[in-house]
Amino acid sequence: MTTPTNVDVFAEFEYMDFILIMATIPGQSGGVFDQDNFSKIRQFRKRYPSKSIHVDGGVNAEVSFILRNMGVSSSVSGSYLFNEASIGNALMNLTQRDIHSHYCIKDFMTPLTEAPSIKLEGATTKTMLQSVEDGKMGFALVLGEQTELIGLVSSADIRKALLKKIEKPSTITTKDLMNLQPISILGNATVNELLKKIKSCPFPIMYLPVIDENGNAIGIVNFAHLIKGEI
Hints:
Blueprint: E1 18-22, H1 36-47, E2 52-56, H2 61-69, E3 74-76, H3 79-83, H4 87-93, H5 105-108, E4 110-111, E5 117-119, H6 125-135, E6 139-143, E7 149-154, H7 155-164, H8 174-177, E8 185-186, H9 191-200, E9 207-211, E10 217-222, H10 224-230
Parallel strand pairs: 1-2, 2-3, 5-6, 8-9
Antiparallel strand pairs: 4-10, 6-7, 9-10
């Protein structure tokens, strides 16, 4: 699959176990990873959650981290390894967490248009729970009148609300279900800034809302695939 190819072509080969995405034009050694492939990876993962994704082309340490976070099973790195002074050092860089950044969070995040979300105005306990269920990602962003980020409701938040009011579940409100102060990150932040934010938090982060300078939600980073890959 070359960079210009749409993921729709896989429909003819659904019996296959995996797809190989060529992130640069084949034959062009040393090519730069085309960030449009982040979108293709998300599309393919959504359509075929049980299929494996492999990536070839332009993979350096930073891209490797992003791909692992997106659930890519394996990636090929040729010129990156051989252009380094030490192949061993380059291999270590592919797995390190302190990464020099060339990409912003908004380049590879799940955009708001693809993320589960619900407007707080008019929301009920049932519709909020349904938004998490329908999204099939374990969370939903809670938005204001426009797209300002109000909070986040996740499976963990729902569990906490139930435990708090287990004797009277009918009294659970939408605010009981929400985390009104979720940790978030700017879309213009770098991968290195993302890693520093994760390390600075006193608790594990599963979902990280992404906002713009005005506090509007523009997407989310989901760490579920990364955690699975590290086990």
